[in-house]
What we know:
InterPro entries: GAF-like_dom_sf. This protein is α+β, with helices and mostly antiparallel strands. It has 17 helices and 11 strands. It has a 5-stranded antiparallel β-sheet with strand order 2-1-5-4-3, sandwiched between helices. The chain has a 4-stranded mixed β-sheet with strand order 8-7-6-11. A two-stranded antiparallel sheet has the order 9-10. The longest helix is centred in the middle third of the chain and has 28 residues, at about 205-230. The protein is flat.
Amino acid sequence: MTxxxxxxxxxxxxxxxxxxxxxxxxxxxxVTRGRPPxxxxxxxxxxxxxxxxxxxxxxxxxxxxxxxxxxxDLLAYRAAHPLAPVLPVIRRLLVEDAEADxxxxxxxxxxxxxxxxxGDRRLRSRAEGVNFVEGAxxxxxxxxxxxxxxxxxxxxAVQIHGSEHYRRPVQNWSCSAAPVHDPxxxxxxxxxxxxxxxxxxxxxxxxxxxxxxxxxxxxLRWLHREQLARRPTPPAPRPAAPRLDVLGxxxxxxxxxxxxxxxxxRHSELLLLLAEAAVAGRGRTAEQLAAEYHGGDxxxxxxxxxxxxxxxxxxxxxxGSRPYRLIAPLETDLDQVRRLLGRGAVGAALERYPGAxxxxxxxxxxxxxxxxxxxxxxxxxxxxRRPELLLRYSRLPEAQDDVAVWQxxxxxxxxxxxxxxxVAAHLHRLRRAPRAPLRLH
Length: 441
């Protein structure tokens, strides 16, 4: 019995009109009613990709993928990309014959952005109509099922033929793509894709793409060896800066070069307050820390005693006095989340936000830091209108009773999304729950 390769779209090399009809029926059932396919209508790799596309809020009939990079920004980004030096290999193996073979060759970065789109000029002109152009982002979460986006999502070579695409405007195309890795670090660098008509979904095209990837990775390995041979002996690496973890933790953890230290709640609060003061480039007197520590109820002498114990624990080379301050870099997970939000990287920030800042602490300075970052995360997630981020945020304790979050999540989940019934039910319970009476002072 012959086992069919699940990554191939057309194992026999020929399209089947009856199969195309079944694909379109299964696609319609999914996007309109959330119904799974019957029997073997859809390859498992395609069905799972359709489900991810639906969950990400991709509109099957919506606008073309966004163009993230333009003009000078695109040129500068491409020039600095690790795949730029090996582009001659890709052109020699794929692009030189692409026009005769009626194919487009695209090279993406790890985020699915098209860096180079070359090959048949007439096909490229047609592809511009669906934004299959340099600088456009074809990751699966924004463009739906497509060979380069799905290859990056699964980190595996794959073919997508015609109606296997999630978005209907691109169902006249077929594509074969494979991911490219740094052969030294294993880091995902991007993908190489061949796009065109039905013939692009035949087995030999995927073999050709994978052979090109192997040649590219071999060239990258050789270039790395050449760089090492020319590179002078590097200086000894600096020890990693200490890091303070306070998000979603009842007590902070301080990661030192010598190993992690679990802090008491009091020491967690004091070190976080000093870290927050360092962000503004300031230190704190014992009186100021007493006010931020216990709203003025703690005497400065008590704060000095705690700080003395803290300095013995973490080292006098981290915490200084007169005024009390950090005298060495201290990274916090709170800083990291704020920086990511400041750059607009909402998904990455949410991944690094497991919960509130020291949730058991009642220290006024800690409460202020907790409320500010919680408000920033909530505002960014709501403004993103991305269903996968709204769903992830809704699972946090601070969002469980937030009607606005659950309402926005319901509004932006597409019809038929698997999580939609549960979201609607939770929102209904929140609206029916009795509200706490207002207290009049």
